[in-house]
Amino acid sequence: MAEISAKLVMDLRKKSGAGIMDAKKALVASDGDMDKAMDYLREKGIAKAAKKSDRIAAEGLTEIAVDGNTAVVVELNSETDFVAASDPFKEELKDVTALIAANKPADVEAALQLPTANGTVNDDLISTTQKTGEKVSLRRFELVEKADGDNFGAYLHQGGRIAALVVLEGADEATAKDVAMHVAAINPEFMTREDVSQERLDHEKAIFTEETLNEGKPANIVEKIVEGRMNKFLSQICLADQDFVKDSDMTVAEYVASKGGKLKSFVRYEVGEGIEKKVTNLAEEISAQLNK
Question: Tens digit of pLDDT for each residue in 222-271?
Fold first, then answer.
């Protein structure tokens, strides 16, 4: 049996919203497996939804550039938010983003070799690192193409902490920007229900079925209840089915259709998602230095 540490219990409690004893019981039942423990809590009705808590923010900013029928979303990282707010960092971010949009490199490695006035993008990043005193790095980017009749919608939230880029078939740029603002705020996982894998659907259905049975619902209506919960779940994670933030009486797809358009694609970047950031105790750090 796996050792259930206090930290593991607290991590599950934070992720699920469950109480300490419920979290510990779930971990014991799942032999310390966090994902299985979350499923256990959901089946028991203790955790109603899996909250993402494994995304620890690194610092930096995102940027979007449009060059004709090409657009790009870029994330540039720094070690602190102080440097991310500095002029040298912001200038480098804009320059790199424009270069990537214009040259369409295949990946980050190719982007780093793009020529600049001072050598390459990599040379410029080294120069910015020297100016700011912190490592500045190009983490990722995504190029998006559109047809002549399509419209890009670009939106940066919190000064670039979150970037959203949307492509609509038809409609207009203002509508596309409205949808980009929605994507930034609500963070959909998929465009439509058809984009959700069968494995994910089967997994969620099994969880909802077990949860409904544990609530003591009559067997003859369990399937109907599960169907309703699946529909609600899909309407929460799929952009097309989500209630539009600026008018909850219609879905995003309905809003776009009312403007003569159709959803085609979206990209959403949030600074630092998926990056483990080292947490330090400043007081302990200073004390350790003084006692050397």
Answer: 889 999 999 999 999 999 999 999 999 999 999 999 999 999 999 999 99
Domain ranges of the chain: 1-54, 56-145
Q: Pull the structure tokens for residue 58.
A: 């690194």
Q: What is the CATH number of domain 1-54?
A: 1.10.8.10
Residue 218: which residues within 8 A CB-CB, separation 6 or more?
Answer: none
Cβ contacts of 90 within 8 Å, gap of 6 or more: 61
Question: Domain 56-145's class?
Answer: alpha beta
- Name the β-bridge partners of 131: none
Backbone angles phi, psi at 106, to 5 degrees: -75, -35
Q: In what order do the strands lie in the sheet with 162-170?
A: 150-157, 162-170, 261-270
Give pLDDT tens digits for 86-137. 999 999 999 999 999 999 999 999 999 999 998 999 999 988 988 888 889 9
